[in-house]
Specification:
Chains A, D, E: GO terms for molecular function: sodium ion transmembrane transporter activity. Chains A, D, E: InterPro entries: Na_pump_deCOase. The complex is a heterohexamer, with three copies of chain A (126 residues) and three copies of chain B (397 residues). Chain A is mainly α and 126 residues long. Chain A has a domain of 47 residues. In chain A, 66% of the residues lie in helices and 0% in strands. The longest helix of chain A has 43 residues. The relative contact order of chain B is 0.17. The model of chain B has no long low-confidence stretch (mean pLDDT 92). Classes of the chains: A mainly alpha (126), B mainly alpha (397). Chains in contact: A-B, A-C, A-D, A-E, B-C, B-E, B-F, C-D, C-E, C-F, D-E, D-F, E-F. The interface between C and E is medium-sized, with 31 and 13 residues. The complex binds sodium ion (3 copies). The site of one sodium ion has 9 residues of chain C, from helix 23.
């Protein structure tokens, strides 16, 4: 244990903690500002069209309209899902890992979301 | 007959050292954990099996030592380094090429950050920017582990690389260790990925010890929707702000944000998909092989490695504590509108630590949904750790 | 305390130059155009955001200047160049590696031509070979722009690189500029891709000015079917004919035709798909990052760049005019059986300029379908531009 | 503006324009010749089979219109799937080469098996 | 023909043949041992659950069965295809940019064609 | 005017040699065989068309000779080799980079083995381990061909490379030849892939000549099921056993087994898929281009090449005979419970030779299914050939 190095380490700690809080603090402030601007813009641009500009959280993930009305797609997909689900029907309690199954190819709109999420789960921790 | 004796001399079995045997067992253990318990298999399986392969003597698939004291004028340049290594250790094997050309040049960690950016939705952090501070607070674990490592006799470069394990970001750990202390790369990488998959075991007791049931029951109001415009602006702004203030973090943050812009822009879906899938998968393979190939007896089988594994737990635990305690502070300031547990998600390990938080919340109150709120600190933690790595590089690099 | 001052010195903000700020704004403009108006987003988005990143000071992600006066014996060899750059400008950052190893060695432009070959159907040109001449006529724009550039004081190497913008083939432009005048690479690449997406604005007025409504109403007889055998023979023949006559065009044409043979042979679908998708996507990412990283203040912010952007318009406009005028000549010779507008499609920009022609034709006569006839000059224009690039390399390279 | 360079540029222009017209002209001639040969071959090989060799223009232009009306395609696909599925459930007489068909995308779980097997066939020999 | 080299070649042949038989022999022995261990483990672990551990040879190539009977899958897919096809059948007025929609994953045969065309549109201009 | 004469001098046509013309025809023949008869198109098509391209004079796409006598101190190091080649033969073209950086460094053959591992099911060999010996017996062909080559005057290094053609494993052939005798790489690679696709023609007469109808009618009992655990243990055990005994085979076997572990572990499906598809496809493209680019007149158009093509038949035929004869021995020992034909599948060529065996069995008795039994020797043959390559490298490398 080298005392000079520990002191140096202390300084680095002080700087590091300061910097990381400063940076993320500034980022937070900027994001608040951007959010405020966005709300102003939206209000000004289309005072009555807010629902369009601020989609429901569910729709927000996907920006564009699918060529099939999601409701119909949902029904069709549900048929397939129900079937595949039956096979995989062991209800696991909050699975910490969800298996990627081949049948995702049939899910349509759910595909990308789930696929990425699963990979996120495994890889995102990096 | 001479030919026959020549051949017998090439039997690897005759050159097997005790170190080799131990490293093979270590590798097999990683493979076992990866398969049996699905511990971070995308990394630990390739790392483990590669460790087995490179410890079979005379295979020639990895001939160059990982950490060498290079002459001053050589170490400046990766290409001179390669020429020097060729001169002194012979023709490179496949794994030498992967390690020296792809990992040591930082190509692989940076491309993984690029892919991660394309896979990450920063929406929860944009919707509630104050949660970014929790991503900063969790970095305290990095410094606690660094100071502990210094106290245990590691030098500053090594201590910083060990501390960053607490950031729970594999590529950042590899990026920093490769630059500051390549001799302990295998140990820090294995520690980072191992503990990451142990997050569901490490975090709950700490979270529960630092919070009361009432605090854990706090419900948070629903996040506001985030517009496409905000999501597009986010990576651009973040890149510029951090790039100007901590330039040494710019490569990591920059690649992360380029990837995220690809994702959110909506106009380059092909490239975004490529970043997330084909490029990511290929790079992941090379990362696993490259890191695994550094697990040689001479550099891995030391008391240091055991200490590093121990320090990894310190790092993760103190990062969790840092996040939760800052969460309690924010709870007080906000008048009880913030559930302090979401601070624990500041250690990154996206999205596992956020799920851990949600699970504990559900245990107390099945109707309490704070997963999305925990995702804010969670993704902020990635940025925070990259910033800390930048500070280390600026001061020590 | 000294540590603290050290750290302050690493603040990029303190080293930001006016040039950096302007380049960041230029990069952001490209990003905006790419997202808001979908201007060639696959290239302009990565180029723009990378330009932002490399102009953040001290990031170390791109340390090597793009255009250096290398000693004679060094410039002969890419590997010596790299060693030289390491010696003089330090360890390469990720973008230096991408630019020097992938773009400057021509690996990336050639692999993109390979992928383009696998994606292009040369059927319309095979069905009506005379339309190939329209692809030649449009190259007149290249020479008009080159001569104008010479008159404005550019040297021959630069003028040729600027002229080739009129070919409307991004990879050919990058290929030629990298070889002849790397100092203006960023400008020519940005000009080429920007004007390409402006084709629907640039071409219509020129086409209308040079043709009468009667000419635009000319209907063309249906194209004959093309057999699989002809489609397979085409790439082989084209490679050999052009390779023997203009060898310096052989790399571009050769890779284009290998890709096309993969496509048409029907026996290597896996490889054809890989050329079009996984390989193409990955290479496109590196092209965008590599070109974007050359947008440094010192080489981009010059009067030359503005002139190049202006000359790009000259090039596109005169290429369009050349094609249309030769189309009128062919119309006369054929006795009015050729719609002269399809000459405008000779500028490549596949398939956008062909769609422009079809749209104008539809405006005059909704029942006039000349899209497929316009595809002939369109794909011939790709070959024509590669041939011109070969001539430039033979005479100037 | 350097006059020598402009003159040189003029020469390059003359050569360049000549070469590009020559090359594409030669290419056109060769293509006419190949087309003529092809027609002769087709006529000789199968005098009555021209319809087979000359697909309808609609099919040739395949970029714009799907070559089969999508609704029919659906029905046909269903038939094919039902058929192939039945085939797949029996023991096949060891085909020496099985073509990869696009419809594998619809098979779901059968995908990987078949895909890999076919590729094995071609590549596995290495 | 160099006699020394031929003699050397003879030695190499002797060694090579010995080694390759030895190695694959050892491998075979180890595999027999592993197989024996496996059977013992299985017997001990679940004396009655052998059917689970020993899938039929047909299923052995692929560890799992398709979760949907292919015939049902075909019918379901046809429904989806018919639906999406109708949506796609509106004659569009020469779109200057066609959006890639997620539902292409359900199209089956149309997939590749459209996918490539769209990418052509963006990239082909190069 | 001088410019014009300069340009005429660059006409490739004027520099075309008889050798070039012949090589172009050879290339076209390969393309024809690949498309018309689907002879190993994934390799022979790229090889053939690349051979055409590199034999067009002055194209500059492949400037460096394939086999050079390098000074002792240069040949030790691939990077020195590249510097040396740059000095003596100028800037590398795309194909020089592919060959020297990807093929000659063994990156490409090893990554293909990695992908093959991920695609291969070793189940049939695990179920019936004794069939592994048939995979050993078929290697006799390798030695027969080697001795014949020696008798014809080839040196030991060349003879070993020629012999290995009999192993019917393309990447192993390329791996060994690149290390021992790069001057005959094109010939051995083309021979290996050509004869592989002729297996259905070469094998049946030999099998029938060496077996009686009664032997061919022998039915074998159904293979036992193989558990997932056994399949996971297999690659690990094989890597360690072979790695310790024949270390020089460890790179090939190691990569094969890492790929197989990715496949069988079931926890890294993404990486396994990437190894089989995106990475495999890209690497296959580069292998084809790299090998094709070595087909230059000076090294390919020799009497040696013809002899090599002839020796390839010897190798395949004697390998088949070796397998079948050993099969008969095993049949005797086992009391007639083994169909000797499955020995013919020991030549690898997965799964073609196994299908050939099944087809002959079906001819004799339509109800005789020995395909899966033939797959045992089939996959064992891959391992056997890699072991033999290891022995060659140990004794000659
Ligand atoms: Na973190
Ligand atoms: Na063009
Ligand atoms: Na073999």
């Amino acid at each position: 244990m080298d005392v000079t190095q520990v002191i140096e380490g202390g300084w680095i700690t002080v700087i590091g903690v300061t910097v990381v809080f400063t940076i993320l603090g500034i980022l937070a402030l900027v994001l608040y500002f951007v959010g405020w601007l966005e709300r102003r813009l939206v209000e000004r641009e289309k005072p009555a069209a807010q629902p369009t500009a601020t989609p429901s959280p569910a729709a927000e993930v996907k920006e564009e309209k699918p060529s099939i009305p999601p409701r119909d797609l949902a029904v069709i997909t549900a048929a397939i899902l129900a079937y595949t689900a039956e096979k995989a029907s062991q209800l696991r309690p909050l699975p910490f890992r969800r298996k990627v199954s081949d049948s995702w190819r049939l899910y349509g709109l759910q595909t990308q979301m789930e696929d990425v999420e699963d990979f996120n789960y495994e890889i995102g921790k990096w | 007959m001479a030919t026959f004796i020549d051949f017998l001399n090439t039997l690897g079995l005759l050159h097997l050292t005790v170190g080799n045997v131990i490293m093979i067992l270590v590798g097999l253990t990683l493979v076992y954990l990866a398969i049996r318990y699905e511990m971070e298999p995308l990394l630990l399986l390739p790392i483990g099996i590669t460790a087995v392969l490179v410890n079979l003597p005379l295979s020639g698939i990895a001939n160059w030592p990982v950490a060498v004291n290079l002459p001053e004028n050589v170490s400046d340049s990766i290409f001179k380094t390669i020429a020097y290594m060729s001169d002194h250790y012979g023709e490179p094997g496949l794994f030498d090429l992967i390690y020296y050309l792809l990992v040591k040049t930082e190509v692989v960690p940076l491309l993984i950050f690029f892919g991660l950016g394309a896979m990450t939705d920063f929406g929860p952090m944009i919707a509630d920017p104050k949660t970014a501070l929790l991503g900063a607070a969790a970095q305290i674990g990095v410094f606690v582990a660094m100071l502990t490592a210094l106290a245990l006799g590691f030098n500053l470069h090594q201590a910083a690389s060990i501390g960053i394990i607490g950031g729970a970001d594999g590529p950042t750990t590899i990026y920093l260790t490769t630059k500051l202390a390549p001799e302990i790369l295998a140990a820090t990488a294995v520690a980072a990925y191992s503990y990451m998959s142990l997050v569901p075991l490490i975090q709950p007791p700490i979270i529960k010890a630092l919070t009361t049931p009432e605090e854990r029951k706090i419900r948070m109001e629903q996040l506001r929707p985030v517009s496409k415009r905000e999501k597009i602006l986010f990576p651009v702004i973040t890149m510029i702000v951090i790039g100007l203030l901590v330039p040494s973090a710019a490569p990591l943050i920059g690649m992360l944000m380029i990837g995220n812009l690809f994702r959110e822009s909506g106009v380059v879906e092909r490239l975004s998909k490529a970043a997330q899938e084909e490029l990511m998968n290929i790079v992941t393979i090379f990362l696993g092989l490259g890191v695994g190939s550094t697990m040689r007896a001479e550099s891995f089988l030391t008391a240091q490695t055991l200490m590093i594994l121990g320090l990894g737990v310190v790092a993760f635990a103190s990062a969790t504590a840092g996040g939760v305690l800052f969460g309690k502070l924010m709870m007080k300031i906000s008048g009880g509108r913030i559930n302090p547990m979401i601070g624990a998600a500041g250690v990154s390990a996206v999205p596992m630590s956020a799920r851990v938080v949600q699970r504990i919340a559900s245990e107390e109150d099945p109707g309490n949904f704070i997963l999305m709120h925990a995702m804010g600190p969670n993704v902020a933690g990635v940025i925070g750790t990259a910033v800390v790595a930048g500070v280390f590089l600026a001061l020590l690099g």
